[in-house]
Amino acid sequence: MSPRTEFRTCPLCEAICGLEITATDTEVIRVRGDRADVFSKGFICPKGSAVAALHTDPDRLRAPMVRHRNGGGWREVSWPEAFATVEERMMPVLERHGREALATYVGNPNAHNISLLYYGRQLGRSLATRNGYSAGTVDQITKQVSTALMFGTTLSIPIPDLDRTDYLILMGANPAASNGSLLTAPDVLGRLDAIVQRGGKVVVVDPRRTRTAERASEHHFIRPATDAHLLMAMAHVLFAEDLVDLGHLADHTNGVEEVRRIAAAWPPGRVAGICGIDAADIQRLARELAAAPTAAVYARIGTCTQEFGTLAGWLVDVLNVLTGNLDRPGGALFPRAVCGQPNSKGNPDMPRTIEWGRWRTRVRGAPEVMGQLPAACLAEEIDTPGDGRIRALVTIAGNPALAIPDSERLQAALPTLDCMISVDNYINETTQHADVILPGESHLCQPHFSATLYQLAVRHVAKWSDPVFPPDPDRPREWEIMLVLSSVFAGRGTEVDTGAADDAIVSARIAKEVADEWSPVYGRDPDELFEAMVPAVGPERVVDWQIRTGPYGDAFGANPDGWTLARLKQHPHGVDLGPLESRVPEVLRTLSGQIELAPDYVVADVARLEDSLERDWTGMVLVGRRNLRTNNSWMHNVGNLIAGREQCSLLVHPDDAQRFGVVDGGQVRVASAGGEVVAIAEVSDEMMPGTVSLPHGWGHDQPGTRLSVAATRPGVNSNILADPAAIEPLTGNAMVNGIPVTLTPA
Predict the structure, then answer these.
(1) Average of pLDDT values for 413-433?
(2) CATH number for the domain formed by residue range(s) 141-335+584-609
(3) How far is the CA of 407 from the CAs of 411, 417, 624, in angstroms?
């Protein structure tokens, strides 16, 4: 078997780097960065090189697993038996208790998988439950809410134009470890270096001197959860010193005077002691931001997952607007993705409404936000007796037993469920409690297309990846798993023609599109369009449809120079569709058709920020951190990624270590209102005094899992320390940064 070379997009994080994979028909020989990839140009991180190890991992499930109800453990079964067991065990629970007894949890790998992304929606409709939970409420829903209110859709997130900006402020972000987050940009560090090399400036604001901060022009420690205080003070300086200049946004922005009124009460001197940043530095940063030829403010998970996450996300975009840097090259721009982007389709004069509070959780009454309930509420909804108690759970590529607050309580609650079904590749801390586990395919046996991430990219690019190895003909594709489960939960049983079901979904999509006068295929013959996509099926057909009806598409012949999936496949290294461009006003989908700089829902929360000024901010607090070799909880079973120095350590500043009697390499007990853990201490001056850091996604020491590599370096679960009662009131997002803690030697 002679080796061959395949070109893929890495599916393991938001950077979507190009991979060059040398393989035979049965094994991978080598993985390296694809130097011809139009976006990543050869860049690769350790995770990308591990795709072969994930493919061959002996712990990865190859067949469905059913758990004996008498405590006899697991048995491997056929796919028909697995689906029949789902129906046999789940449907009686729903018949007895109703759909209010059913919950779903969706993990972040869904955003990287087109089968789960597209066909998971069909499953969601058939589940017909309001109890929807996801990793989004432990991550970025704060940013999605603020951008939806300001610009009209949840993914209308302005992206810093890294390749052309002169001045960049990064807050609560460490792309050296994350590779970018809500920012799709391979080799972020190289792009930051290029800003400095061309005479620009990069400023990092973070309670830890990260590897990103070490490469920046300037770094400022900031006390966790005070990002909104800092940003508000910078807005004050812009108004007070007459530095506000909206540029071309002046005729497209509402609420400037309301923001002026609010910011008037926030001079730098009022917040300097709380933030830990001198008033003179706050003033200087605001002046530099306004004076730079082009500039952008970018903030990520450290600002999203804290007490004032929505306010911080809102104020980032407020500063970009006030300095005229929103929607201009070199500033923060709205991408126009190749397909699937709500702000690129339809009539902009018919905006989408953003809704929340339509229903609430049973126990504490936490409101729904954009269809999601706070993940921090899941455990109490399972173990609290009474009508409406969750008795059944469906998880899709998620590990809430490690990934969400109150995780110890959730670990105890999961075995009490009447039924649990998981779509997952491993028996992990969550799925060990499932009745049935339906494994997905290896990354290398399925196609890949980064549909969601193109909406967050620093450049307009597109690339389709065919499977490296042929899929197993004796098992369903992941999109077919979703369709069979949809049939089961809709009460139609397990005998389903997935091809016919897929045809029906596509036909309905076509019918809707040809009836939309704003569509490029308005008025066309639906049958003609349907036949034009044959013989493609599943996500391949959906991607072709979305590309052809998208902003660069051929509109099924109406635009002969436009793109189709067939044409895209002729470019194995991807295609470059150009730099980001100004899109206001056509990108806006707010009710007013304007940028809403002062949305009532967010402005009302400023009072809570005001109240925080009277608080004692001197206690010890905990923040999370990421590692380049891991991805939340699901990359820890690859040996070469967790080898070497301990990754799950508690970073402590030397002054704090001396104060609390903590020694480097010793055991330290960390306690909070949520619980306590014992971790290995790592004394380092990279931490701001008064702040400690523990990474997210560890704690692989539970019996019953099959993660043989992860179990050798289990670490501790930082989410035990997250107080489940502490959720951001606007969005329900968990507060997993800025957690008050105490330290004692263990």
Answers:
(1) 97
(2) 3.40.228.10
(3) 6, 15, 16
